[in-house]
């Protein structure tokens, strides 16, 4: 599994936050922050906070990720991703991502 697959199965290579960071694209940061605030009901996500290289590689991270229950769970269990967990199919923590992000589950299982 490549390192740009996040703990939850999102492919960071195609994530707008990572793309905005790599390209220093403030318009994309603004668009992503607005979208994520609404999608995740997270008013703390700001344009300035959209600065991330991916949760499993060195570099910038979105501050919100340090509070991410998925990342906390994966690290507590000593896994690289949720794909290593036997509870993947029934997990309430990663369930939202698996339900709303096409390809996330397949990324975790490949």
Compact description:
The protein is mostly helical. The protein contains 5 helices and no strands. The model has no long low-confidence stretch (mean pLDDT 91).
What does this structure look like?
The chain has 110 residues and is mainly α. The chain has one domain (12-109). It contains 5 helices and no strands. Helix 1 packs antiparallel against helix 2. The relative contact order is 0.21. The model has no long low-confidence stretch (mean pLDDT 91).
Write out key terms for the chains shown:
110 residues, single chain, mainly alpha, 5 helices, globular
Largest sheet: none
How many structural domains can be distinguished in the coordinates? 1
Low-confidence spans: pLDDT under 50, at least 5 residues? none
Beta-strand content bin:
under 5%
Task: Describe the secondary structure blueprint for this structure.
Elements: H1 16-23, H2 26-39, H3 69-77, H4 95-100, H5 104-109
Helix pairs in contact: 1-2
